[in-house]
Amino acid sequence: MRRAASIVAALAVVMACASVHAKAPARAEDPPWLVRLSSYLRNVREHEPGTLDMPARLTGFMGEADLDDLRADLFSVVAICRREFGRRLRPAAVVYRDTTVQLTDLRQTLGLTETEAAQGDVSRILKRAAVLHADVAMLVIPLLPGRVGCSSYASLVVRDGNRIGMGCIDIHWIHSRHLLDAVIPDPAKDELVRRWYVASATYLLESGNFANAKPLLDHARLLFRSDAEILFVRGYYHEAFASPPIQTVVVESGSNHRDARSSLEEAEGLYSRAVKENPLFVEARVRHGNVLSLLGRHQDAAEELRLAAAAAKGPELRYYAELFLGRAEEAVGNPSAARDHYRQASALYPEAQSPLLALTLLARQLGDRAGAQDAMRQVLALPAGREPEADPWSRYYRWQHVDFKARFKGLYSRMLEEEAR
Fold first, then answer.
1. How many Cβ atoms from other residues are within 10 Å of residue 285's Cβ?
2. I need a surface site. Which of 81, 89, 116, 263 has the fewest CB within 10 A?
3. How much is the pLDDT for 161?
4. What is the C-alpha R_g of the chain?
5. Are 196 and 229 in contact (CB under 8 A)?
6. How far apart are CA 389 and CA 219, in angstroms?
7. Are 210 and 240 contacting, i.e. CB atoms less than 8 angstroms apart?
8. Residue ranges per domain, the chain?
9. What's the CA gap between 371 and 358, in Å, rounded?
């Protein structure tokens, strides 16, 4: 109840501030579309990336129709600037939506330099706006009640393999993609646009938000066909989609006609391409090896995982490589090698139960009762109150070696560097 009350109070404050914020810059003769556009672009300029500030809160209250109308106005006004500023003799004023606007005022509203206005290039503003809307989706929308920030479409919410409700297809991710499509000369060749897609996809996949990840990744595929990181996150999506918790609900609801094997085959192809594009991409090798093993290609998996284990830096990647390599060696009939790899995984994370359970099952299959009992005693002796992170396997389907916070930090730095040029 306290949480609900605090949210309601916060909403009241934000709505009150929104009223003041929207009215302050407006003049009596300004039409509603210009007031809305001016207020929005001010929020874009003033937003501090990565923070839950007032510009982000105000933007969070915009509806789907508001964003559609605003985007249409923005692109139309930019087209006018490109046309008129490119002329040798410029008119003092232009007409848009039955409103006469001074051309210099229009440029100032957009916040464009003279060169940007003449080229109709709002790429700098579009990129900053996409960052704002990503922050809104991550920081603001989860705090708002009902379906604020959601499109007319809905998704399934799954927990532990059970459907527990309906989810949100966030309008801010959609709006961001439309904005970035207008970056010139080509969004597919723009490094900041690429980073936005990688960071946003990483956040959605780590959050288990597959409904919003899918359209984002489908669009990324059209822009960045051969980029190793985009190939990787697409593979990550299909691998996670094939996992038992997701497939249980998919089969029950009939929401997708592709079976788990089809998703694994898709993931295998994408991981393979990612490794080909970047042979030093260790995490892609680790996951490629896991998928190969799940597809029954254990010898190929073992070869890939040996390379991954040898190159892995840090305990987590090495843990996964050793754990999966143990399974692959076991499947091709090398129990001694499998045992060694399970033990190496266990040494990396002594409180992890997965390698100990694997050792237990391996010993039982070999008829080694004493070995099975010893491994199981180690499982039972693990601390009862240990954190879930004690076994990295518990987060495998919502984990990436470089997390979304690091990726967004890199995105923000890139944006500030570009703006400082």
1. 27
2. 89
3. 43
4. 26
5. no
6. 33
7. yes
8. 2-148, 228-405
9. 12
Task: Supply 84's token pair.
Answer: 């008129």
- As given in the structure block, the two tokens for residue 143 are 């705090």
User: pLDDT (tens digit, 9 = 90+) per residue, 296-325?
Assistant: 999 999 999 999 999 999 999 999 999 999
- Look at the pTM and tell me if it is higher than 0.90: no
Nearest residue to 210 (alpha-carbon basis) of 50, 63, 405, 397: 397
What's the pLDDT at 150?
A: 84
* CATH no. for 228-405: 1.25.40.10
With vertex at residue 231, the alpha carbon angle to CA 227 and CA 237, rounded to the nearest 5 degrees, is 150
Contact status, residue 59 vs residue 42, Cβ threshold 8 Å: no
What six digits make up the tokens of 220?
A: 């990324």
Residue from 162, 126, 49, 154 nearest 416 by CA = 49
d(CA 156, CA 211): 8
- Write the CB contacts of 258 (distance below 8 Å, at least 6 apart in sequence): none
- Which regions in the chain score pLDDT beneath 70? 1-28, 152-167, 249-258
